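Quick question, first post here. What does this chain look like in 3D?
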Amino acid sequence: MNTQTQESQCPSMPRLNEPAPDFTAKTTHGMRSLSDYRGRWLILFSHPADFTPVCTTEFIAFSKAYPQFQALNCDLLGLSIDSTFAHIAWTRTIREKFGVEVPFPIIEDLSMQVAHSYGMIQPGESDTSAVRATYVIDPEGKLRAMVLYPMTNGRSIAEFLRILKALQTSDAHGVATPENWKEGEAVIVPPPATTADADARMAGEDECTDWFFCKRSLESAATT
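> Answer (accepted):
Ran it through. Tokens below.
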């Protein structure tokens, strides 16, 4: 296979902080478009196939965490290269066999149009199924985070709750969050841009290890 052919088969990937690819698609809850979620956060996630064990565990976990996402002004939207009829049958099985109701829609993407526009099809993994891709889209329709997992390994739903809270905190307070940050922990303030600001930062009330590395409580960040 020549380089040109390889490049033509590589999935296009959306880019962070740019508008998420638009779509209108049939789902288990009727037609859905990206514009339907304007004003709310959206987590769009794909799975390889219905009626598969790993995907079932993920849908159970997403469903159980659904009230937590809703409390954060965030909706969930699933997708796979399966028909709506397969989605309906699978969610009914999850309800009947596992006692869990799937409360969010699942996109039918038999044409793979949505999957290709988001880069969910990874030829190194599969040409016909979506990998475990997850996209966090903000209320303005911009893509803010994306994570891709292989078909063999399930996602951590808790991580998507964590990154959603972190993004909302950064937006609200103009701060960054450190590794594995959790709600209530100190945040990182932007580094100073001048030597005078650096001197002032070190003499201020922030918890500074060095001029470029300072933390403060969220309460302090909100009032500064």
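The chain has two domains: 3-154, 187-223.
Confidence is low (pLDDT under 50) at residues 1-9, 220-224.
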